Amino acid sequence: MRTLSPAARHFAGHCAEMAASRFLPTFAAIGLLASGLLTDTGALMGIEHGAMLPAMLLVMLLPVDEYTGAHHDHLAPQVAA
Questions:
Q1: How many angstroms separate the CA atoms of 32 and 44, rounded?
Q2: Neighbours of 68 (CB within 10 A)
Q3: Is the dihedral of CA 28, 34, 37, 41 positive or negative?
Q4: Rounded Cα gap, residues 67 and 22, in angstroms
Q5: Sign of CA pseudo-dihedral 52, 56, 59, 64
Q6: How confident is the model at residue 72 (pLDDT cuts 50, 70, 90)?
Q7: Exposure string for 9-39, b = 16+ CB within 10 A, e = fewer
Q8: Predicted confidence (pLDDT) per residue in 3-52, tens digit
């Protein structure tokens, strides 16, 4: 059986985290609707999308070390030894 490369596993992890950040507010809105606490579907959709954007931003900003630092070493001129 073939295993995924580390880069592919890393990418799959980010996809799963981003998917969870979208689904959790949706499930919360469904829970509010099912419990009868809020029955206005327009308001639920607004709450859901209002919660989804900060959740996606949080998932993106949590691994801050991946987005900061020098990632462009391959562009630096090579010095002959």
A1: 8
A2: 8
A3: positive
A4: 21
A5: negative
A6: low
A7: eeeeeeeeeeeebeeebeeebeebeeeeeee
A8: 656 565 566 667 788 888 889 999 999 999 999 999 999 999 999 999 99
